Structure formats: structure tokens, C-alpha cells
Amino acid sequence: MFGRMAESVRRLLGKPGAVDLRPYTKLLPAIEAEEEGLRELSDTELTEKAIDLGYAELPYSPGDLVNLCAVGREAARRTLDERPFDVQLLGVMALLDGHVAEMATGEGKTLAGTLAAAGFALRGKRVHVLSVNDYLARRDAEWMRPLYKMLGVTVGFVSEESTVAERKDAYVCDVTYAAVSELGFDVLRDRMVTDVDDRVVPEPHVAIVDEADSVLVDEARVPLVLAGAAESMPADVEMADVVRTLKPRLHYEVDSEGRNVQLTDAGIDAVEKSLDGVDLYSEEDTSVLPQVNLALHAHVLLQRDVHYVVRDGEVRLINESRGRIALLQRWPDGLQAAVEAKEKVAVSETGEVLDSITVQALVMRYPTLAGMTGTAMAVAEQLREFYEREVAVIPSNKPNIREDHGTRLYATREEKEDALVARVKEVHTTGRPILIGTQDVAESELLADRLREAGLESVVLNAKNDADEASIIAEAGTHGAITVSTQMAGRGTDIRLGGSDMADRDRVVEAGGLFVMGFGRYPSSRLDGQLRGRAGRQGDPGDSIFFVSMDDDLLVNHAPETTGFQTTAEGEITDEAWLGMVDHAQRVSEGQLLEVHRNTWRYNKLIDVQREVVLEHRELVLSGDEGDRHIRADRKERHEELVEELDAEKVARAARLITLYHLDRGWTDHNAFLSELREGIHLRFLGRRDPLDEFNREAVPVFKGFLDEARTRAAASFEELEVVDGELDVSSVGVKRPTMTWTYMVHDHPFSSALETLVGRLKGGRGSSSGTN
């Protein structure tokens, strides 16, 4: 009664709450009743029964839902030797209704997602299962292929290594698995094609997002970028060498949050002297100061083995929410080059941005959107606000008996480290496997060294060896194992007690199961939960505990007070008020991340509207006769002349290529304008004006004449067309595509981002440089 009342109140107030599972639960007995009869069918008959479900529209009726789940359960039993639990079927039904299913680690999200994807596909919908990386996309597609086949559904996958032909083959399948970034890059490339047959991504129908909170929230603001017109930007090695000599507090100061750095007066004098007396604030040359700030930012605020690693002579960013190498991610080019100069490695290619799309805009293309994750309720508000999705909390198959201990708080990092090592030593004597979660690469390696000094050998999983992550995680439950890892989100492999073959399972269970220890709390409680959730899988025993110190970044950056506490002899702070401050700091951090998400969404909303206008017109030109019709109207005499000399088909093709070129060229230029506008718009705060309002006020009128301008330029180019060897030479009027394109991801933080100050036109002020999130 009280549960129903609470739900009613939540809905009345517009608060996000869990989806009512009772309509699904009522169907479980009927599903089980079908089981015995289905077992008597041959494989062919079972497939035919699944295909019969395709003769109706979505949504599934209760009777068809029973049949789908019953057939799916029997097909999984035959092909995978796995009989889906009732709770997994609840997850299937929730996904088919377009919800985000919260299912704990080890509860079988992959199988639930497969049956839901098949359910959509059987009703004629094209399904994209979006993963967090190529490894999981390939693994899940190949792992589930026999099940899909028995259900009469085709499946494929796309990875970074896929050729154009392989991508086309994968996308024509009923169900396609792909990393969300890889799908985004394909969408961006499709937006630049000049022939309909060159597109690879079909019209979107259904997206099922794995690790939905990570993709839809943590990475929602990440722009996927298509760049072209490659050229190298020379790295300013001299500038890197200059800032390398500067001393903290004497020559530069870093703010309390570690996000901004600026030169002191002594620093300005030192830099100007090192650069042969150049005036950093000269109005004649405004290019030097931004270069200094870029180099200073790269040297001071971006740390090797924390924000990036150097591998195979390249600077590679670390994905903050996953602790892995972000192969396709980079900083905007000036900062990327500055870091490469700092590390004395070859400078990567750069060029202009042709187009971009945020992860949020990418998934919002799908009329039907669903997702799965172990930690959805913590972001239920954002899922409702940005995606209009509700969370269905699926109960675990077996009760969770993991014991979650309170946070242990210490005065200093050293004392925290001592306490954790002592606890590891104590637990290790029992033979229990131990998983230690750390914040970054450097921390994981330092902690592993500290454990080694104490006689405790461990296996380290971080961005430097993430290629081995599946095998490392698979053995993390082995008797006596100690594993030190960065972020656990999206690792995708269960930790089974006793190791991958579970040979020692009984011994590990008797010892108490997996013990998870966090070396610091994360910026988001969800990340804590993802680490903690590695223990207690499927009713297994387990424990979790987090060790925090007052000098952790979380508290230094987000706690209102970090002095005045009392400690025990071991440096532990036991006062409940101070322990509560850890939770407070985490909530502040989460609030800031939410505001970043909101700002990004608001900023990109206008850009998405303008982009959609261009794309709709581009589609008319690409697949219809819009370009030829306009040019025929605007340049009638020249058009008739060329038709008479050649033929109508060749003129139409030339008109299409020219019109597409000016649309794409215009959008690239408009993108650059919007970027320039945004770089300085946050300074409107100084005039007490809302930067978002100011951005919209200036961006809207500039776009008003966009299509007319592109049409005018296309007509002018057509007028100058030359006939060469019986063909219309569009290159003679400057219609040339980039000789090379490439894709990458960048961080984004509108209106308060580091790079808006860094690469802005710093002509006044005293060399301020801001850091990224």
C-alpha cells in the first residue's frame, strides 16, 4: 500500500521513479506454462513459431509477449545452454516497452538485450545494439549469433577495422551491434556522400543501449567529429621548452580546483625574456599569448598516466569514465599539439571540422530507444529530462548478500594507503580474491608498487594494458588473486568466483567471496556502485569498502571544509559529520556534471535544429532533382546550352555535385563561425548577460540566409563550368572534396570550458588558462 502511495506521489510531483513491473510479472506463469510444449518442437518448428510472431505490429499484445518470451527462453536453452531467469524476461519486456532496465552485474543483461532485439526485429524493426567499445560489440554479436539464428533473425557487427563493404553487410542485418562512437562516425561520413549508394547506415528504427548510463549520461556531451583537408600543425617545441623551466607559485599559479593556471608577473617576465624580449600583450602580434597558454596548460594541468598515456610514440587520451585508452578521442588541435610537443612525439594531423554530432543527438535519432545498465536509478532524473525514458528496476534472481561497509576516512593519502594495504594483507591471508578500484593509471601503478613492497603481488588493469582486460577480469575471482584496476564501467566480463573455469568456486565461497576495495570515491556515486557491484554476483557472498582521504581530489574540489578534524592514532577520521561530507562532496560533483550536461544540451539544441534544416535540403539534392531544378531556374541559358552540348543526365549530375559542395562548404564555415562565437560567448558573464541567450541571439540571424547563399554560390559556379573531353569538369570551379577525412572524439564543456579561454583570442588580461573537465 505504502509503495503504491509513494509511486503515486512521485508521479504527481513529476519525480522519476521505477516502472511498475506488475503487468510483466503477471505474464510469467503463462510463459512457464508454454515451456513443456515448446521442448517437443524440432529446431525448425521452433524457428517457424518465432517467425510467426512477425505478423503483427508493435507493441506486443500480452499473448504475443508470452509467446515471444517462451520461444526465446527455449531457443536460448538450446543454443546457449542458458535458460533465462524470470527476472531476465522482465528485463526483456521492459526493453520492448522502451524503458531503461536496471539489472545488477551478473544478472544477464546481454541475453535480455538479445531477446528484446529479436522481439523488435521479428516485428520488422531494424535494431542497433549500441555498446561502449568494439570488443563488446563483436563479442556479443558472435556469442548470441546461434540464438538469433534459431529465432530467424540475422545479426552483424561493426568495428573500427570494418571495411565499407563489411559495414554495409552488417547494417543490412536485422540486428547490428556497434560501439556508439563507430555508429556516430558512420552517420557523419554518410552526411558527406555525393551518391546515395555510398551511404552505409540505413534509416534508424530501434536502439538498445548497453551501459546506458555511461553512454546516455557520461558521454552524452561528447562530440564525435569528422575532419578533413588534412595538414600538419607544427608543434611549438620551443614554447614547450620555455614553460618547462617555469616554477609553480613563482611563475604560475593553479586555482584550488586544479582547472585553471595563469602566469604571475614573474612568469610573464620569464617567458618574455626566454622568447627574446617578445611582448606577450602586443597588439601587433596576438598569436604568442595563446600559444604560451596552450603550452602552460599542457605542461601543468594535463598529467601523463592520468589524463593520457604515451604509447607507440603517440599521445593517447584516457577515457575518464572507463579508465581505458580513448583511441578516437583527442583535444582540440592546438592543445593536442601542445601536449605532443611537451612529450616530444610526432604531431598528429589536423584540419577543419566538417561536421560533428553529440552522442545524445545520435541516439535521439531513433524513434524507439531502450537501454540496460546496472546503475540507472541514480540518473533517473536525467534519463527522463533528456530522453523521456523511465527506469525499470529489475530484481536480482537471488538475494544480494554482499556486505557493504561504510567509507573509511583518513587525514592524508599516505594514511589511507597504509590502511588499505593493511586491510588487503588481512583479507589476503584468507585466500579471498580482492579487487581494488583506483581513479587513474598512475594511481593504479603506484598502489601496485606499494602492495609489492608489502609482499603482495597483484595484477594491474588500466589503460596501458586494456587489450588484456577480458582475461584479467575473468581471473579476478581466482583464490588468492589481487587485481588493481581503473574504472570498472563497461568492462563487460563477469568476475566468477573461482576464476573463469570456477574450479576453486567452493573454496572461494567458503572464504567469503570477492572483496572489493575502492581507493577513493569517484566523482559519481554510480561509478562507486559499478565497482561495488562486482561482488555479490548472483547471490554470491562478498564485501565492499571504500578508503577516502581529505586530500583526495573529490574532497579538495567539492567539500566546503577540509580542515579542523580530529583523527585516531592511525589518522582515521570517525566523526559522522566529516564522513557525511564525503557524500556531500560527491553530490556537489554530480550536480556540476549534470549542469555541464544541461549546458551542452541547450547549446547543441540550436545547432541541431540548424543542422537538420541543412540535412533535409541536402537529402532533396542527393536523392532527388532539387539541385538541378534550382540551377535550371537560376541559370536557364547556361543550363540549356550544356544540355544541348552534352545531355541532361550529365548536367543534372554536375548540378548535384556543385550544390552538395556549396551546402557542405557552407555548413563547415558556419560550424567554424559557431565555434568562434562560443569561444568568447562565456565572457558575456562579465556583462551580466546569459551566454546561452547571447549565443542564440547571434547565431540565429546568421543562419537565416544559409540555403539562399548556398543556392546563389552553386548557380555562380555552374555558370563557369567547363567541358573537358566531353565531360563537365566540376573541379574547374573549385568543387573538390577533402583528399582525406578522419574521425575523433573531443571533450566538450560549453561556456565554461578550458579551451574557450585557451584558444580564444586572448588580447587583454593576464594570460589566464582554464582546464577541461
UniProtKB/TrEMBL annotation:
Record protein name field: Protein translocase subunit SecA
Membrane-protein topology: Peripheral membrane protein
- Which top-rank group of organisms is this from? Bacteria
Give the SecA family profile domain ranges. 6-579
UniProt enzyme class: translocase
Family annotation (InterPro entries): Helicase_ATP-bd, Helicase_C-like, P-loop_NTPase, SecA, SecA_Actinobact-type, SecA_CS, SecA_DEAD, SecA_motor_DEAD
Principal localisation: membrane
Q: What does this protein do?
A: Part of the Sec protein translocase complex. Interacts with the SecYEG preprotein conducting channel. Has a central role in coupling the hydrolysis of ATP to the transfer of proteins into and across the cell membrane, serving as an ATP-driven molecular motor driving the stepwise translocation of polypeptide chains across the membrane.
> Which key words are in the record?
ATP-binding, Cell membrane, Cytoplasm, Membrane, Nucleotide-binding, Protein transport, Translocase, Translocation, Transport
Q: Does the keyword Nucleus apply?
A: no
- What Pfam families does the record tag this protein with? P-loop_SecA, SecA_DEAD, SecA_PP_bind, SecA_SW
Q: What is its EC number?
A: 7.4.2.8
List the catalytic activities from the record: ATP + H2O + cellular proteinSide 1 = ADP + phosphate + cellular proteinSide 2
